[in-house]
Amino acid sequence: MRVRAKKEDWLKKNADLCIRCATCMAVCPVSRVTSLFPGPKNTGPGAQRFRHPEEPSVDHWVDLCIGCHLCNGVCPAGVPISELNLLAKTKYLNEKGRPFRDWLLTHSYLYGWIGALFSPITNYLLQKPVVKKLLEIILKMDQRSPLPNYQSPLFREWFKGHSSKGGKKIAYFYGCFTNTNDIDVGKATVEVLEANGFEVTLPTQDCCGLPMLGNGDFDGARKKGEKNLSSLLQVIRSGVEILYTSTSCGFMIKHEYGHLLELPGAEELANHTFELFEFLRKLKESGNLNTRFKRLSIKAAYFTPCHLRALGIGLPAFEILKLIPDLELTRLEADCCGMGGTFGFKKEKYEIAREIGNDLKKAIDRVNPEMILTECEGCRLQIRHLTGLKVLHPVQVLRDALLLRP
Amino acid sequence: MGYDLIIIGMGLSGLMAAKTALDLGKQVLIIGKGMGGLILFSNTIDVLGKVPETLPLKDGLSHWIKEHPEHPYSKIGVEGIEEALSSFVSLFPPPYTFHSFEGRNRKLPTAVGTLRPTYLFPTTLSGGAFLKEGNTLIVGFKGFKDFYAAYMARQLKCRYLTVSFQKEGPPDLTATYLTRQMEKEEVRERVGLEIKNSLRGETLIGVPALLGLHDPMRIKAHLEAITGGEIFEIPTLPPSILGMRIFNRFKVYLLERGANFLLGHNVSRVQIKGSICEGIEVLHPPISRFYSAHHFVLATGRFIGGGLEADRERISESLFHLPVFSEDSPERWFRKNFFDSHPIHRSGISVDHSFRPLDHDGKTVFENVRVVGTILSGHHYIDEGSREGIEISTGYWGVKRLFE
Q1: Which of A83, A76, A74 is closest to A45 using CA atoms?
Q2: What pLDDT was estimated at residue A403?
């Protein structure tokens, strides 16, 4: 793995910024539910002072960092605690070796389309207890973890057969999960943008690389980033801006391509890539948002994904959905769903993920909504798993308010 | 979009400023580099710890104001301070609310077994005021390094109990872990029973302030039903669960009223035209965003908050480059003891009656910028025991005078 020489110095400098105030210890979802993880202050800047690139890693608990970035957000000294943890975790996993399961979890882009192509069979098998048991025994995937459903046709195929009405061009980075597992999010995005007078294009795109980065595979993530950059830069240089609906893919593209992966062109791409609702909020501010909403009498609760917080754009979806008449929308007072991308699938981490999720479930029970809205696919899987409730992306509700026949 | 008000700083003064502006129906953006000082310092609301318990705080305050015309309290007055405090208390409807003891300071026990005066404190702390030699059992948790029951009990001449939380697993337990455990009924049953069996005539039971984030009164009542004693919380080292309860309450209140809340981002630049601030730039590499507003509140605190920076030569305010007032020049800064009253603790920004920053000639520097909180000059909050009082009253009046 190439963690460049600059990083060594970077690590020390940033660890030394810590004033040991323990604010991060107030928000860490993992150390809140388990004493196995000593908390960000200790695993990040604290342990960093004892780490040496030439010495073997001894801090096995760093692998329990869920990568939510909440600690970064509250630190008054500006210590990038998540990144310190991620780099330490990478070194630890490089030495210890990664199970085949981790490879599988981070390469779903390779087989997702096959799963979707044979979706009736895939879904049937993935719901079978015996298959789940086997996955647990062979792969150490927890048999209780919420496996996604596969859908066909793929979103990209649906789009091919979709006729556009023209308008100003806008490109859509839909991400793997929308393409193979949640194609209605993609459809809704296209329909909402068309209702606002845009023509949607789908640029060539690959997995953003976040699953790999989260599992400490910098090389794999970098390859994905380079591939996406070469295609997406062409799009923005032709004068077309890029939107995304997955806050995780978006955070990866906007912030990690440059900051952690140091990919050339990342800054240019970041400045022309926007979260869908951030974009719609700009339309609203300039008076160009289509707000001819129908009444939707639904009691819904909104959950803020960790990566949306890390994007630092506020709660644009919450702001826009508030405009829909009769929609009763409450913001859930909870941090982190526990899924952590691929964290919650892993047998050794499932209990922790579920405990974190249980705190969110309690917050949901206090509100007692009909459905939950959240931008992150991992959160949606986890919340469905924990509550059995209907969980949608905010754009699906926005589409219904714009287009649904009364 | 242009906001009515952008508040920089997410400590108690910034949050109070945001609440006041939202109550007046304004569009507010509050932005914090981190979560602010509540989680570090604010277990209780100190207004002026120097006032003896025998005197009503009101009388002590008016005396103080007469003698300290340069103090932030002198810009507000006794009634103004009371109004601001009630606005704060209104966030916490009973049962979990903030009280004083008959309008006077009261000494409450600390985790190191000393007694410190404070003015307003949450309901769950009140039992501590009645601690006397031998009448209290101090309860700690094994593996919780931020609270040593044995040490505290020895200072206060009481008995103690250390509850073993788990049989196996790592030795260290964190405040948030224990707080979450205390929210579980079955855990309280076990802990409560262990406490009950250890009581030797004590009627008060002091526990570290870990009685849950959401409903501490219910947890306290449950433990009291099991033990038969009166439970009170004792503030611990950071992260302060008591401070988190305050922060979370503000957050819910502000977001419900439509505030835009940006946590974890640094204001990298302010855009100034003449004596007007037009907007701020927030850098989140590689993106920088510009936010404009009619008015701005600077509530960034002193050195720990990052509002002031000091080097060998000077103290500076890093964002607006406001003039900083210091009592003494750096060559006279040396003190023998760390806790000696040091001039660095009095440095800060001078403001006019509307909390607008002043230069050394007493002229207004920016027309549409208000400065509130501990960054103000003329006070030494550590020595005075006035941190939260200054934060709440200047945060409140800085905004109130702006819009009225």
Answers
A1: A83
A2: 86
Question: Average pLDDT, stretch B15-40?
Answer: 95
State the DSSP H helix or E strand holding residue B141, giving kind and residue range, or none if neither: strand B136-141
CB contact under 8 A, A22 and B239: yes
DSSP, collapsed to helix, strand or coil, labels residue B191 as: helix
| pLDDT for position B224 | 98
Closest Cα in chain B, distance from residue A313 (Å) = 7
Beta carbons within 8 Å of A305's beta carbon, 6+ residues apart: A247, A248, A337, A374, A375, A376, A378, A379
Residue type, A123: N
The C-alpha of B92 sits at a distance from chain A's nearest C-alpha, in angstroms, of 17
CA B401/CA B404 separation, integer angstroms: 5
Average pLDDT, chain B: 94
Q: What is the pLDDT of residues B185-217, one digit of tens each?
A: 999 999 999 999 999 999 999 999 999 999 999
Q: How far apart are CA B223 and CA B217, in angstroms?
A: 10
Q: What pLDDT, in 10s, does the model give residues A340-369?
A: 999 999 999 999 999 999 999 999 999 999
Please name the residue of chain B whose CA is at the shortest distance from the CA of residue A35.
B173
What is the distance, to the nearest Å, from the Cα of residue A67 to the centroid of all Cα atoms in its chain?
Answer: 11
Q: How confident is the model at residue A1 (pLDDT cuts 50, 70, 90)?
A: very low
Exposure pattern of B218-235 as b/e (b: 16+ CB <10 Å)? ebbebbeebbebbbbbbb
Residue A5 has pLDDT above 50, yes or no: no
Cβ <8 Å between A25 and B282: no
Contact A185, A395 (CB under 8 A): yes
Alpha-carbon distance A253 to nearest alpha carbon in chain B (angstroms): 11
Best of B28, B145, B174, B266 to disrupt the A interface by mutation (most A CBs within 10 Å)?
B174
Count contacts between A and B (CB, < 8 Å). Answer: 115
Residue pLDDT, tens place only, B337-385: 877 778 888 899 999 999 999 999 999 999 999 999 999 999 999 999 9
The band of A400, judged by pLDDT with boundaries at 50, 70 and 90, is very high
Pick the closest to residue B124 from B59, B218, B195, B54 (CA basis).
B218
Q: In angstroms, what CA-CA distances link A192 with A176, A187, A200, A202, B307?
A: 20, 9, 10, 15, 44
Q: Test A255 with B284 for CB contact under 8 angstroms.
A: yes
B174–A35 CB contact, under 8 Å: yes
Residues of A with CB under 8 A from a CB of B: 19, 21-23, 25-28, 31-36, 38-39, 72-78, 254-255, 258-259, 266-267, 270-271, 285, 309-312, 314-315, 331, 333, 359
**Structure-token pair, residue B399:** 């905004």
Of A25, A76, A271, the CB nearest to B239: A25
- Judge whether B56 is closer than 8 Å to chain A, CB to CB: no
User: Do A62 and A89 contact (CB within 8 A), yes or no?
Assistant: yes
Note the helical H segments in B183-302.
185-198, 216-227, 241-256
When CB atoms are compared, the residue of A33, A78, A314 closest to B261 is A314
Question: Tokens 């869908």 label which residue?
Answer: A276
Residue type at position A168: K
The whole-number average pLDDT for the span B78-97 is: 98
Q: How far apart are CA B298 and CA B78, in angstroms?
A: 24
Structure tokens at B164: 């073993």
Lowest mean pLDDT among A9-13, A115-119, B53-57: A9-13
Angle at B344 between CA B342 and CA B350, to 5 degrees: 125
Token pair in block for residue B271: 């855009």
Confidence at A217, pLDDT banded by 50, 70, 90:
very high
Determine contact: B257 vs chain A, CB below 8 A: no
- Residue A34: closest C-alpha in chain B: B177
First to last CA, chain B: 23
Residue A363 CA, chain-centre distance (Å), reads 21
